[in-house]
Amino acid sequence: MKAMAAIRHTTLWLESNRSRPGSTGGAAKAQIAREHGIGLHRLGQAASTLSGGEAQRVKLAADLGRPILPGTIYILDEPTSGLHPQDVGYLVELLQRLVDRGNSVIVVEHNLQLIAAADHVIDMGPGAGEDGGRIIAAGTPVEVAANPQSLTGGYLKSWTSSKAMT
Questions:
Q1: What does DSSP say about strands 121-125 and 134-139: parallel, antiparallel, or unpaired?
Q2: Measuring CA to CA, how many Å separate 26 from each of 11, 32, 63, 110?
Q3: For 70-127, what is each residue's pLDDT tens digit?
Q4: 146 burial level (CB within 10 Å; 0-12, 13-18, 19+)
Q5: Is the torsion defined by CA of 59, 115, 123, 128 positive or negative?
Q6: Fewer CB atoms near the end CB (10 Å): N or C, the chain?
Q7: Whole-angstrom Cα Rg for the chain
Q8: Longest dimension (CA), the chain
Q9: Where are the domains of the chain?
Q10: Is 103 left (phi over 0), alpha (psi -120 to 50) or beta?
Q11: pLDDT digits (tens, 9 = 90+) for 144-166
Q12: Which CATH class name applies to 2-119?
């Protein structure tokens, strides 16, 4: 609940700064929001109407609009949940901008588009619950895709092959 309140506050702050004459902070943040697929939402929109992925992107876009010390670690849990595939592309761009600023991003994810864009992948398994918890494969997406022990790698290999043909 506290996280959702923070998101609502951030959204309202964007709206209030954009409407102040001579303020550039809100306009810059609104531009970042538009660049990352959040611009279609009404400023001041209740956070409870956002998907989990949209809510995380609002918070990340707000971080990009202010000075961030290099070395910040962002940990995200399934940020693509509820997102349209085009929005996943915006999320990948947003996360790359954080990395380009010297930060680290750790993501727990099943979306192949996001996994394929990662610098390093750790595939845990082989199953869920008591059947999981072991590292099956680790490395670049290409290395994981080439590992015959990795279930994720098999899906990643098929996904990247299909994208190369389109």
A1: antiparallel
A2: 10, 10, 12, 33
A3: 899 999 988 888 788 888 888 898 899 889 989 999 999 999 999 999 999 999 998 8
A4: middle
A5: positive
A6: C
A7: 18
A8: 59
A9: 2-119
A10: beta
A11: 999 999 999 999 999 988 887 56
A12: alpha beta
Return the closest-CA partner of residue 114 out of 65, 59, 77.
Answer: 77
Give the CA-trace dihedral at 90, 95, 96, 97, to 10 degrees: 90
Phi/psi region, residue 96 (left: phi>0; alpha: psi -120 to 50; beta: rest), is: alpha
Whether 80 contacts 111, CB under 8 Å: yes
SS3 string, the chain, reads: CHHHHHHHHHHHHHHHHHHCCCCCHHHHHHHHHHHCCCCCCCCCCCHHHCCHHHHHHHHHHHHHCCCCCCCCEEEEECCCCCCCHHHHHHHHHHHHHHHHCCCEEEEECCCHHHHHHCCCEEEEECCCHHHCCEEEEEECHHHHHCCCCCHHHHHHHHHHHHHHHC
Residue type, 37: G
Rounded CA-CA distance 143/44 in Å is: 44
- Kindly report the pTM of this predicted structure: 0.70
Task: Return the ∠ at Cα 158 (arms to 124 and 155), rounded to 5°.
Answer: 20
d(CA 156, CA 145): 6
